[in-house]
């Protein structure tokens, strides 16, 4: 008996609700297995999936191994940190699984997310591209007391509107403020508190760098594509 879950983008693990559901299925059938598939993380030619069974609490109290070795074939998959946090090897354990694909299924998986060489030369609509730029970045640079390097960063990526309008930056506003706050905390907090201060928090600097990289690459591709079309056509 197989019970299936789909967790798009979250990886393969069982939540508390999933554990309770699986517990009821295992009460009905002792051979029930929970199979989790992540369609978002599944990439070309590879399916991200895992199988789990619950661990009897009494077995854990006695210190016994819940898994039984039936053959030398197969290996245990290396668990992800998300699965360990959500109770892997404490409330449930993973089972090594394999699956067979026919020729049509292999061809389908290999063509998943497949791009043609012309894909990178495809131009966006200029109005939507301009709107994307404006949504990515807006803020009046002089409004916030941001460190020099951040002001320069926003100056480079900023988009100038009509004369007298502020420099636009939309999505990076919160990131810039968080980065400025993080830099100030680095100067105020002692080293021992600083080591754990940012645990579990968003790294504003890395997200800013990612936004800048995406913005620059999209604008470079759009500009080169426009010049190419002008010359060719």
Automatic annotation (TrEMBL):
Residues 1-56 form the MPN domain. It comes from the Eukaryota. Keywords: Hydrolase, Metal-binding, Metalloprotease, Protease, Proteasome, Zinc. One of its GO terms (cellular component) is proteasome complex. One of its GO terms (molecular function) is metal ion binding. One of its GO terms (biological process) is proteolysis. PANTHER family: EUKARYOTIC TRANSLATION INITIATION FACTOR 3 -RELATED. This is 26S proteasome non-ATPase regulatory subunit like. It comes from Actinidia chinensis var. chinensis.
């Amino acid at each position: 008996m197989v019970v299936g879950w789909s967790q798009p983008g979250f990886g393969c693990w069982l939540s508390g609700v999933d554990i309770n559901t699986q517990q009821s299925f295992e009460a009905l059938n002792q051979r029930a297995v929970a199979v989790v598939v992540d369609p978002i993380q599944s990439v070309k030619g590879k399916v991200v999936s895992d199988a789990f069974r619950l661990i009897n609490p009494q077995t854990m109290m006695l210190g016994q191994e819940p898994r039984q070795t039936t053959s030398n074939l197969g290996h245990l998959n290396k668990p992800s940190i998300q699965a360990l946090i959500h109770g892997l090897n404490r409330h449930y354990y993973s089972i090594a699984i394999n699956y067979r694909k026919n020729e049509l299924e292999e061809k389908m998986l290999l063509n998943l997310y497949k791009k043609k060489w012309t894909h990178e030369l495809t131009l966006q609509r200029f109005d939507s591209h301009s709107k994307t730029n404006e949504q990515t970045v807006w803020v009046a640079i002089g409004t916030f007391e941001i460190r020099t390097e951040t002001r320069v960063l926003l100056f480079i990526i900023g988009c100038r509107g009509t004369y007298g309008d502020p420099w636009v930056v939309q999505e990076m506003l919160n990131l810039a403020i968080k980065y400025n706050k993080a830099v100030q905390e680095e100067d105020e907090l002692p080293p021992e508190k600083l080591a754990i201060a940012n645990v579990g928090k968003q790294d504003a600097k890395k997200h800013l760098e990612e936004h800048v990289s995406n913005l620059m690459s999209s604008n470079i591709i759009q500009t080169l594509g426009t010049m190419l079309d002008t010359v060719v056509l």
